[in-house]
Amino acid sequence: MARKTTPPTSTAPKLQLSAREIKRGIERIDERISELESFNVGTLVSGGSPELTALTTAIKDTLERCFGENTSAYNRFLPAAKLHYSPMMFVAGGPPIDYVTPTRRNIGNAVALLNEAKRSLGEDLKDLEHNPSESSPTQPQKSELSRRVFVVHGHDTGSRETLARFLDRMDFEPIILHEQANQGRTIIEKVEAHGDVGFAVVLLTPDDEGSVKGGISEPRARQNVLLELGYFIGRLGRSKVCALKHGTVEIPSDFAGVVWEKMDDAGGWKQALARELQAAGYDVDWNKLMKR
User: Fold this and answer.
1) Is pLDDT above 60 for 289?
2) 199: how many CB neighbours lie within 10 A of its CB?
3) Is 170 helix (H, G, I), strand (E, B) or coil?
4) Residue 154: closest CA among 210, 208, 218
């Protein structure tokens, strides 16, 4: 009969710690050593006690924090957590089992292993201090902001095209919904499909009229514009949404916290929008802004 073999368990890669984290790890190991050295073996009952169990758990947690679970270093020092003594045989009516001596020996072994773990961390710390460029784990580079800008608009095609040309000149890519293929999707499905943008500009233009019941009608933006305004506030956050108000149009009270600027014919809105884009983290070429 063929002998069944167990495939070796792969170990995790070495945990990369900063100098500060290594120093804190050494402090934790010192705390565990102090707890072991002050442990009263006289509290043992049948080879165990709640304090000893707590110490075992604390040692495992400390090793995991210092070296990472299932790394080669963690596995090398893990026997430090084996504090309990379990006799190989128990004979009824025989002499009482000595739990104190073997437990004291296990504690001594644990202290020796933890001191070695502390020495290993100390060597890592020296290496980092010798090469300051590696004194902290490599952080992932911050992803670049998408320069795709969603343009929410109503029936005012002139304002929409003026805004799109301005964004083009400033090296942004305007996303205009009606220019995207339908592919059998509803409007909101198209908004979601093309909503992977970094910023949204909403044109509030007087395309509709409305009022409270019995009141006087006032110019309002289209309902789809307000819906998409709310959608992008939720998706991007208020700091990455700017509304441009063109003409006389009511601003909904629910959107009082949204940045909005007057889209004046003199072009002052361009500087205002550029400032909002810059505040959102974008690089803005102000020389291009001055070009006509």
Assistant:
1) yes
2) 24
3) coil
4) 208
Kindly report the pTM of this predicted structure: 0.49
pLDDT at 145 over 60: yes
The DSSP result for 4-47, as a single string, is P-PPPPPPBPPPP--HHHHHHHHHHHHHHHHHHHT--GGG-BTT
pLDDT confidence bin for 92, thresholds 50/70/90: low
List b or e across 107-146, with b for residues whose CB sees 16 or more CB atoms inside 10 angstroms. beebbebbeebbebbeebbeebeeeeeeeeeeeeeeeeee
Domains, the chain: 19-87+96-134 (no CATH), 148-208+217-290 (3.40.50.450)
204 in Cβ contact with 221 (< 8 Å):
yes
Over residues 235-252, the mean pLDDT reads 84
- pLDDT value at residue 200: 93
**CA–CA separation, 63 vs 122, rounded Å?**
14
Closest CA to 189 of 245, 228, 133: 228
Instruction: Check if the beta carbon of residue 54 is closer than 8 Å to that of residue 32.
Output: no
- Report how far residue 70's alpha carbon sits from residue 73's, in angstroms, rounded to the nearest whole number: 8
pLDDT tens for 156-186 read 889 899 999 999 999 999 999 888 877 788 8
| Tokens (6 digits) for 21 | 């984290």
pLDDT(94) > 60:
no
Q: How many residues does the chain have?
A: 292
Give Cβ neighbours of residue 274 (< 8 Å, ≥ 6 apart): 170, 284, 286, 289
Please report which residue ranges of 38-156 form alpha helices under DSSP H: 50-67, 72-77, 100-130
